[in-house]
Automatic annotation (TrEMBL):
Bilayer topology: Multi-pass membrane protein
Gene Ontology CC, one term: membrane
Record protein name field: LHFPL tetraspan subfamily member 2a protein-like
Keyword Acyltransferase: no
Transmembrane regions: 12-30, 93-114, 126-148, 177-197
A Pfam cross-reference name: L_HMGIC_fpl
Subcellular localization, as worded in the UniProt entry: Membrane
Predominant localisation class: membrane
Length: 222
C-alpha cells in the first residue's frame, strides 16, 4: 500500500532539490558567464559612437551581441556549432563535468517527487540514495567550476575581454550572473545532501509509524 508521507523536512528537501536542478540547468545554458568590456554600439552612419555602450556576454558555448545598423538588436545563440568548436579545452572539460552534475540533479529531482509516496528502493532508503547522488553531483559541479576559469586565456575570451586576459584572470571582463548562479546551485546541492538525511529521519520517525499502524494513507507532520 502506498503511504503518502509529507513532513516539513522532506518537503523542504524535495523543493530545494527541484530548484537546484533548474538553477544549474539555466546557468549551464545561459550566455551570461562573462561580460565583455564596454563597447560602442554602431550608429546609423556607421560611426563608432552614437547609440551608447553595451557589454557583450559569453557563455560556455553561446554568446550575445548587438547587431544591426543601429546596434539596437541583440543576437543570442551558440557560437560553437559542434563540441569541438568550444572556446577552450578547459571549457570542454568543464561542460562535461557540469552537464554530468546537472543530469544527476535532474534525475534526483524527479525521484524526489516520488519520495512522497515511495520511501525505499530495493529496501534502500530513497533519501540516502538521493543524498549520495547529490553529493556526487556537487563534486562534479565543483570540478567543472574550477576548470572554467582556466579557459580564460583562449582566443575567444581574449576577443571579449582584451589581450591581457589569461587563465584565472579575466582582464576587462566581469563575471555574469550565470557563474554566480552555478556556484550558488553547487553550494545548495551539498545542502540538499545534508537535508536528505534529515528527511529520512523525519519520514521514519515513531509518529509516522504510529500513523501507518492506524491505517492512514495520507500522513502530514510538521
Amino acid at each position: 500500500m502506498c503511504h503518502v508521507i509529507v513532513t516539513c523536512r522532506s518537503m523542504l528537501w524535495t523543493l530545494l532539490s527541484i530548484v537546484v536542478a533548474f538553477a544549474e540547468l539555466i546557468a549551464f545554458m545561459s550566455p551570461d558567464w562573462l561580460l565583455g568590456y564596454p563597447r560602442s554600439a554602431p550608429s546609423v552612419t556607421g560611426a563608432s559612437v552614437g547609440s551608447g555602450e553595451y557589454r557583450p556576454s559569453l557563455g560556455l558555448y553561446s554568446r550575445c551581441l548587438r547587431v544591426g545598423s543601429r546596434g539596437q538588436g541583440i543576437s543570442c545563440g551558440p557560437y560553437a556549432g559542434t563540441f569541438g568548436e568550444v572556446a577552450s579545452g578547459f571549457w570542454k572539460a568543464a561542460m562535461l563535468f557540469l552537464a554530468a552534475g546537472t543530469l544527476v540533479l535532474g534525475c534526483v529531482a524527479c525521484i524526489s517527487i516520488f519520495s512522497l509516496c515511495f520511501q525505499s528502493i530495493l529496501k534502500k532508503s530513497i533519501f540516502n540514495i538521493c543524498g549520495l547522488l547529490q553529493a556526487i553531483a556537487g563534486l562534479l559541479l565543483m570540478v567543472g567550476l574550477m576548470l572554467y576559469p582556466a579557459g580564460w586565456g583562449s582566443d575567444k575570451v581574449i576577443s571579449y575581454c582584451g589581450t591581457e586576459a589569461s587563465p584565472f584572470r579575466p582582464s576587462m571582463c566581469s563575471l555574469g550572473w550565470a557563474f554566480y548562479a552555478a556556484i550558488g546551485g553547487t553550494l545548495a546541492t551539498f545542502l540538499c545532501a545534508v537535508l536528505s538525511a534529515q528527511a529520512e529521519i523525519a519520514t521514519s520517525s515513531d509518529k509516522v509509524q504510529e500513523e501507518i499502524e492506524e491505517g492512514k494513507s495520507l500522513i502530514c507532520l510538521l
